[in-house]
Amino acid sequence: NILFNVFYAIFSALAFVSFIPMLDVLFKQTKEVFEKPIYNGIGDLKDYLQDYLNYQISQQLEIDITSTLVIVIGIVLFFFLFKNIFNYLALYNITFLKNGILKNLRSNLYGKVLEMPIPFFVNKKKGDLISRITADILEIQVSYLSMLEVIVREPLTILFTIIVMFTISPELTFFIVLFIPISGFFISIIGKKLKKDSTEVQKEQSNFLSILDETINGQKIIKSFLAESFFTKKFNSINSLLFKFSNKVINRKNLAAPFSEFMGILVIGILLWYGGKMVLINESLSGTTFIVFMGLAYNILTPAKNLSKSFYSIKKGNAAAERVFEIIDIKATNKERQLKKINDFKNEIKFENVTFSYDSNVILDSVSFKLKKGESIAIVGTSGGGKTTIANLLNGFYQTDSGAISIDGENINNIRKDSLYKLISIVTQESILFNDTIKNNLLIGNENSSNEEVLESSKNANAHEFIINQENNYETLIGDQGNKLSGGQKQRLTIA
């Protein structure tokens, strides 16, 4: 990609230089050279190339003016053709790099979300996590990865263009070189607040997704309690803040292109004044060469604008990147490979002086009991008494404050989670199903189960009869969270 960008930058500069012989022929300004020039070393390279080109053109003009014009126009077309070919090749290659980075970023973030323990999700809004995986990743794509297209190409284009301009007129090139750091200074001042405003936008986007999620999932409650106006006010408040911060960010970003263009035109105005004196008064520069020099100067404006826009984009993308890597950089606390693997349950489950609390609220206080293999146990108590907490602790979803939970004498903290989960089946108070077919929901965690095993588990849970009455039997799509099924059907399918 770098090689293609180098060739693009070279041909971009030479494409404008190729206008000089064409304009000289068109306006009959070609310097007549009838003796073939002699090369005298690298120090004489510029004059040699000019004289050699003028010699060839002079020879051709003696034959036919029209064919000479066709040739010099062909030279211009040649350079512009290869400039655009190398531009396409550079963009073609960078596409795979950009999308590859994006793919890996999504995979790493999603993998980290799956790796996180249950307490992590208790303290995080669902909308915030979704916003990081979707909106923040998209912002990184727009802000950071688009920078990959210009980070090499535009500086190289500016560099090679300035080199060519310097060979034409060092005096005029000085104004261009002076313009770049001055413009960069003002751009950096404007961009400082962009990151702060962008952070606010990302925060409000996560709140926006959270209220949407609550509204969609809580439709029955919202309608039954006539709470539409309450949620509308809540939504409008978040939407207004998002509107406010988005306007600030976008308007700051929109300032980049006009500011860069004005600074560029200001320099071109100075060049026209100073260069005009060199052409009209001092006669140290030909008119056609000055026109091409101005074209080269304008050729710097576009990459300069792109770089300034990219600078603003990076400032804007920093906020999104920080939110994404805040999740990716979380260290896993458990070392699964060092833990013990168990294959079966033989004797008993034992709780010994188990204490557990959510924040400062104690739920279980020195609880002890045993569960023998083969026993059916019902834990009865008031709401909030810790019944669900006991199940969560047994599954290893949370860590006890003190005490120990063991299976056949082995502390569950020393057991690998994957082997622990294979020994436990859980049906939660709220039926958790996925937007897929009935069969695929039954196969979750047991992908290699045969059709006979699927049928047997369905019959054991009294789910087979309602399944075969569905439109597509076991291949019926049950909708988001199983919303196409009744409450009882969801429960039976969850048990199966």
TrEMBL record:
Keyword field: Membrane, Transmembrane, Transmembrane helix
Transmembrane segments: 6-27, 63-82, 156-187, 255-274, 280-301
CDD domains membership: ABC_6TM_MsbA_like
GO cellular component: membrane
Membrane-protein topology: Multi-pass membrane protein
SUPFAM superfamilies on file: ABC transporter transmembrane region, P-loop containing nucleoside triphosphate hydrolases
Gene Ontology molecular function, alphabetical: ABC-type oligopeptide transporter activity; ATP binding; ATP hydrolysis activity
PROSITE patterns the record matches: ABC_TM1F
Pfam name, any one: ABC_membrane
The ABC transmembrane type-1 domain, residue ranges: 1-316
Main location (coarse class): membrane
Subcellular location: Membrane
Gene3D superfamilies named among the record's database cross-references: ABC transporter type 1, transmembrane domain, P-loop containing nucleotide triphosphate hydrolases
Designated name of the protein: ABC transmembrane type-1 domain-containing protein
